[in-house]
Amino acid sequence: MILLNPGPVNLSERVRAALLRPDICHREPEFFTLQNEIRRGLLQVYDLDGDAWASVLLTGSGTAAVEAMIATLAPSDSTLMVIENGVYGERLTAIARAYGLAPLAVTHEWSRPIDLAAVESKIASNDGLSHIAVVHHETTTGRLNQLDRLAGLCKAHGLELLIDAVSSFGAEAIDFEAWPVAACAATANKCLHSIPGTAFVIVRRQALRDTKASRRSVYLDLRAYCEAQDEDGTPFTQSIQSYYALGEALDEFFEQGGWRQRHAHYHALAEQVREGLFEFGVAPLLPAEASSVVLRAYHLPAEMDYAGLHDQLKARGFVIYAGQGALSRRIFRISTMGDIGAADMHRFLAAMGQIL
Ligand SMILES: *Cc1c(COP(=O)(O)O)cnc(C)c1O
Fold first, then answer.
1. Is the CB of residue 41 below 6 angstroms from any atom belonging to ligand 1?
2. Which of 248, 127, 272 shows the shortest CA–CA distance to 194?
3. Ligand 1 center–CA 335 separation, angstroms
4. Is residue 7 in contact with ligand 1, taking CB distance under 6 Å?
5. What is the pLDDT of residue 70?
6. Is 88 in the pocket of ligand 1 (CB under 6 A)?
7. In the 8-state DSSP scheme, what is residue 329?
8. I need a surface site. Which of 16, 58, 98, 128 has the fewest CB within 10 A?
């Protein structure tokens, strides 16, 4: 079965085989060796210096990392702005509210780009902002939010960014130097091609030291994880098998050439799909230049409902992904993450051709 949903992804055989390594205890040195290798590897993805940055590992899906980031770093005495242009931006607001915060949301329709003028005027008219939470790749529509100019605005106003990079980390450019990033949340099972189970936050160490947030969570407190992991420890049991798989997936990632190579690979597959579907009259929701290389959304072909398309494709060995909310009747989504290649996309397009 070829998975064209945005994670979990098809695994390579070497990552799958890593799941069968020996049973170990999470309080023994062999576990900490593995944990340290993974933490170093995750920083290496974007060439980050371990004195300035920490990667903090959690057991959970991507949302656990996003929630830990907000719970730990959204300050108690200042306001968090949240940018919403899809399901995941709206989830950032929901998380902040669940912790009793009153975030200032800048809302957009789901298929719209970030309205920088609206963001700027809200910054100007609200004292006491300190952070902006934003989704990098909004998986709802496949839009890659352009964070360069938002980062410029943040810098001009002394604000820091909390980024949901769950579906972009490892395949899209993230400028940790130029952008005022306090933290960036991501997961093992999307662009890094491992299994679900380990999520992580890349956090600026200074931001963790400086945070004025009160302790809001016992399980999702990044400070506790970071302190323990820096000292060869872990506050709670981690998913050992998920660590094995992520360690192997990172080795494979670097052997294949790192994030730029992964970006190029995804780009080639995404364009192959876009061009192939165009031949059948299936149009993308967004222009290619506004889209990520990770996932693209397409209008459902006329007179075809999603369930029918999904089931016929599944019978031929391909899992596609529905739209969310009101988009569920209008679009379908194709992600090209995972251990898949041009030949798989070729067969997928042939199957689409038969169905249409
Ligand atoms: C996948 C995803 C998440 C996390 O979803 P989980 O189901 O918790 O893994 C968060 N944000 C974005 C943008 C995503 O694509």
1. no
2. 248
3. 13
4. yes
5. 97
6. yes
7. G
8. 128
Q: 187 in ligand 1 pocket by Cβ < 6 Å?
A: yes
Give which of 203, 188, 227, 200 is closest to 7, Cα–Cα.
Answer: 188
Tokens of 116: 């920088």
Q: Are 280 and 352 in contact (CB under 8 A)?
A: yes
What number does the ligand 1 atom closest to the CA of 136 have? 13
Mark out the alpha helices in the chain (DSSP H runs).
Answer: 13-18, 29-45, 62-73, 87-98, 116-124, 147-157, 205-210, 222-230, 240-255, 258-279, 306-315, 342-355
Structure tokens at 288: 């290619």
Q: Is the CB of 140 under 6 A from ligand 1?
A: no
Give the closest residue (by CA) to ligand 1 atom 6. 62
> Given this model, what pLDDT does residue 11 score?
98
pTM score, two decimals? 0.98
- For residue 86, give the ligand 1 atom closest to its CA: 13
For residue 187, give the H/E element and its range. Answer: strand 181-187
How many Å apart are CA 229 and CA 209, to the nearest integer?
Answer: 15
Distance 281 CA to ligand 1 centre (A): 30
Give mean pLDDT in consecutive 10-residue pieces for the chain, a chain of 356 residues: 97 98 97 98 98 98 98 93 98 97 96 96 94 98 97 97 98 98 98 98 96 91 98 97 98 98 98 97 96 98 93 98 94 98 98 96
Protein residue with least CA distance to atom 3, ligand 1: 62
